[in-house]
Amino acid sequence: MSEKFTSVHYHSYLQLDKILDAQHPRSAQVEESVAHDEMLFIIMHQVYELWFKQIIHELESISLMFEDNLMDEVEILKAVTRLERIIEIQKLLIDQINVMETLTAMDFLDFRQYLFPASGFQSLQFRVVENLLGLKQEQRLTYNNLPYDVVFSETQKEVLERSIENKSLLTHVIEWLDRTPFLEFSKFSFLEAYKKAVERMIQKDKDAINASEILSEETKKQRLTMMGDTSTYFNAVFDPAQFEEMRNRGEVKFSYKAMLAALFIFLYRDEPILQQPYRLLSRLMDIEEMLTNWRNRHSQMVLRMIGRKTGTGGSSGHQYLKSTAQHHQIFTDLYQVATLLIPRSELPALPEELKQYLGFYFSSHEHVKE
Amino acid sequence: MSEKFTSVHYHSYLQLDKILDAQHPRSAQVEESVAHDEMLFIIMHQVYELWFKQIIHELESISLMFEDNLMDEVEILKAVTRLERIIEIQKLLIDQINVMETLTAMDFLDFRQYLFPASGFQSLQFRVVENLLGLKQEQRLTYNNLPYDVVFSETQKEVLERSIENKSLLTHVIEWLDRTPFLEFSKFSFLEAYKKAVERMIQKDKDAINASEILSEETKKQRLTMMGDTSTYFNAVFDPAQFEEMRNRGEVKFSYKAMLAALFIFLYRDEPILQQPYRLLSRLMDIEEMLTNWRNRHSQMVLRMIGRKTGTGGSSGHQYLKSTAQHHQIFTDLYQVATLLIPRSELPALPEELKQYLGFYFSSHEHVKE
Amino acid sequence: MSEKFTSVHYHSYLQLDKILDAQHPRSAQVEESVAHDEMLFIIMHQVYELWFKQIIHELESISLMFEDNLMDEVEILKAVTRLERIIEIQKLLIDQINVMETLTAMDFLDFRQYLFPASGFQSLQFRVVENLLGLKQEQRLTYNNLPYDVVFSETQKEVLERSIENKSLLTHVIEWLDRTPFLEFSKFSFLEAYKKAVERMIQKDKDAINASEILSEETKKQRLTMMGDTSTYFNAVFDPAQFEEMRNRGEVKFSYKAMLAALFIFLYRDEPILQQPYRLLSRLMDIEEMLTNWRNRHSQMVLRMIGRKTGTGGSSGHQYLKSTAQHHQIFTDLYQVATLLIPRSELPALPEELKQYLGFYFSSHEHVKE
Amino acid sequence: MSEKFTSVHYHSYLQLDKILDAQHPRSAQVEESVAHDEMLFIIMHQVYELWFKQIIHELESISLMFEDNLMDEVEILKAVTRLERIIEIQKLLIDQINVMETLTAMDFLDFRQYLFPASGFQSLQFRVVENLLGLKQEQRLTYNNLPYDVVFSETQKEVLERSIENKSLLTHVIEWLDRTPFLEFSKFSFLEAYKKAVERMIQKDKDAINASEILSEETKKQRLTMMGDTSTYFNAVFDPAQFEEMRNRGEVKFSYKAMLAALFIFLYRDEPILQQPYRLLSRLMDIEEMLTNWRNRHSQMVLRMIGRKTGTGGSSGHQYLKSTAQHHQIFTDLYQVATLLIPRSELPALPEELKQYLGFYFSSHEHVKE
Hints:
The structure is a homotetramer of 370-residue chains.
Chain A: H1 10-13, H2 16-19, H3 26-30, H4 38-67, H5 73-100, H6 105-115, H7 124-133, H8 154-165, H9 169-178, H10 190-211, H11 217-238, H12 240-248, H13 256-267, H14 272-306, H15 318-327, H16 332-340, H17 352-358, H18 361-369
Helix pairs in contact in A: 4-5, 4-7, 4-9, 5-14, 7-8, 9-13, 10-11, 13-16, 14-15
């Protein structure tokens, strides 16, 4: 008789004995009367940690797919699905701030002193999430001029170490883009075709400015100068050497090839074999945005809760969180690609043979029949 | 040296050792390979239970306020604030279904068999929440023709019992409305004044129908008959005997006096002393609505996940949940009051003396000075 | 000189002269003092109508794709994208009810009389949306025992007629499923393979029930009887005659073939060529759910606003809206498919040749090379 | 026969002839084939403008209440209700970005050229909203080094002028706080009492740091230094001269008295007569936050849509919007107050007489009876 038919109760399955017996307000231990709102404070953070665990579970599984070189066309869909789950969780994390905000400053201050020096800064799992995504150690803001891991125990530091040693999602994605086969396709030079389209587009924009009836001559000049900036940016793409310099200066993280591959995927996203890769890249941008939204909202909430006071962990609270929204960004290179996009109507047609390669076997077979 | 200055770490404060070690997928125990998505299933439900604990924490504290007769004008604000917190949590519970829906039917079916016969139906805390709010035992839908508590252990049943024995929020609110002093104010007969306003309003509506140029005579007659129904309903308010009959038939739960008090509060909500009581009643309606939304969304999700299959607990799943949305309602009497409202411009003016009683001491003092 | 370089101003481009001069509160015309909140009432409904126009724009474009037989593998993605846009708009429509709810009953009643007999029931565009999606005329609830189009002018009725005459999205989808080529693939009998998998699964479930240590014998018997129901439902799929009877009774709208095709797509959704068709079907379910959510929320709001009073249009308001949530459903057949799903691990493997047909040309080519 | 009984149809009431005939895609005029997605672009912006009109309607009505000196205790509730409506609308404005994001960069680029030089920067109503709230002209970021109103016609500039000439909401609120009577109450010196409470609290925090077992001596010193900063900040409150300097440097906009009044309201928010004033101030903070959220989300969307390209209006797009999130802030002074809050348990008790003044007439009367 297999073990799997053993009955299980909701209560034991979810280990609610543990889960629901893990709320012990500090204010109850040190004072006669417990601060009513400390319960919310505890449960809210426990929920955050549960979701972080789930996010880590998903990120690690995606990394495994990349590592085992499983990332074929079917697996990509699975990775996309898991990234979409992370995004849905992130939405909850953000909306949860609305619950947090029902805790008023004065009620929080009532038990805040007992929490010292505990702080959200000490969430190990949150650091692991950042590392798994690909936040570079050198990007990290210091914390009262100390490294961010100063608050962790030795065992916790080991967990952190492992999350850094393994390849991050960012690294996996770059390597996967590097391997994209379609750029090197026979006679078609993607870069050449794209270059011409860009030139056409820029010329049109310039014509539009010059033809304007309401802009003054001065404004026109100004606008044309700005156009220059944009085209300068396009030029960087066409020149590998210039790109390499940007990379050396730390302005981009992608390799030249990875960047071209991402651009190719963004431009030809409708071709069957590129549909899921495009979604994958888009979801990474969503995750970045959600993380930034969360940091911004969190920072606002802290401002409202403790104003300019220092956080329980001793951090500068509001200011620190606001800075991470700006500096702890990971997939910035994908946003560069947005600058490089051109109108759909200007998109160079793909050679028939390449189009077939990017399509379904079935469709190609149908063609043959006809 | 007071204990309160002992340092505390985020990790131990939140008892993360317990919280993050309470996820043990059954599929991992009975098969070689764990079903990846079972983790989500577990964590999602644990988060639900954590929020239920918080809701119970708030509901119990509000009941205490009522019990200790603390419900003076300052305490009401506190109760309102806690109800608003519950509402914010309910929004999360609903939005969490979006995360749930990233678990597809086929992936769920992969580990569903191991959960048998565990079921959300076995959530003790959810039943306690329903009881604390005021769901009557006789309202409860049966579950495969068995009482809803058949799935609980003896200890759990005791917890349930306690949640029934104490006065529910509904009962507290009715008793609190019963005590409202303002209806009996000296010469002012609220009921008389309201009666006249209603008659005026109904006459206006009838005139509007009769004067219509586009309605056929037949439609006019039909509409006037329907008007009759509404005025019939208003009449029930004016006749305590008729109201008592409705109550005996189980159509209303409020006492006659409580219903009048609620109506008085709804109509004169702008008077200072009634502002928070009005918010209190409104928040109860919000909580009911959120609960109904959650049941509807939950029911839809189950339909999508397992179709017409029976739930793991053996319930008819989708259908059961949909029925509770209709039958497990608690504050229905407050919605009756909506039918009784009249346009603001038709509102009978309060006698100056009563107005002063409903106002601030400061304002009255100011008046005196002038 | 091409016309396209003419300058355009934001204000004229959006025709704000029209848009922002279309709010004329009735209360201002008939009384000295305008009801402040009527402005909200007007703008809220205008926003609804603007979004309805956008939804119609998307639905019509999708129908055109189907009509021109453009629905190849690339076009499906485009249709999915537009359905997803509709869903995002639907979310706004639902959340907009929160704005609506800032209008209190008493303030609404203040100008409600002037609106008579205007009513949301008279929204032509909303009826067109229902028709374009595929709501059958015979499904429609009557309105005071009169046909729903009694409120429209002749010109408006013509618009309605056109929205019925053309094939609805539902019809297009059924025909498209009917054309799916993969069910008839050479030696592989999808139905046979699926049948065996179902039998295996049902047997497992029965074993689980029989092996249970906590269920009483009586409960076991009851559960096994219910299981019978489910297998009965599965049997209907296997027997075209039985299915045809259900269809004649109006219980299903899909053809037998369309239903099998939908099931095939749901089960093998991971195969490259089925990924977008699966998304298409899923998005239709989302649209249905959103519409139902909106109807439920709208119905709740009306209950709160006017209670059991009749609507300005003379409808029974709350009750009518609640009934449409139940009866105005369109894509119900897709939910039937959910009942037919089986665990991913029980999914019958596809023959290698078919798998190739469902895959990418590139992958097949790679195979050849090796 | 009064005009008010004239029938009205939904369609004419909402002036749908105008509203639904105001979408004329430019791409349709200049090319053979219209860009499908331009419709969304137009409607989306029209919806924004309709909501802006509603927000202006509410803001102007609130200003009138202040102007007519109507802002007694009953009116404040009305103002709060209208601010809450604005907040609900702002939530929609933010969520609407999700609809906007279904328009992909490449599809947008397809008709973007025809819009030149129209730009969201030319929304007159949005500028009016900023002005009505209280954004100072000198705070405004320039736009390509030109004043922000350069894009408006003479008539539009007049509208702008009027929105500046009248007192802004910020000014009204400051003046209203200046008039608060309770600070000057007989023998009770609010400032003295508050001062002592702050000193007690800071001492406690210092003790906690010194008693810590895990902080190194160096860290302790660092933390104590930071504490110094906070107390420095508190000191500024106690010294009117120092505050005046901050005001002259433009660091604060409130008067000294207004700031004290706001602090008093925040601290004693539970006293009946302060409950609505507290909500009023809180809602202003919500509005500010929502506006900032919207600017942040908008900026992210633009980054994703056009990358570093310049906007159609010639602005630096993403960067400009991001900067306004930081610099176009209005109610910053209220956030300063958060820094000044103290734990509820440290709150100095009010003298009985003052407490009575802040309470209800009814309660005081009750007291007397006993």
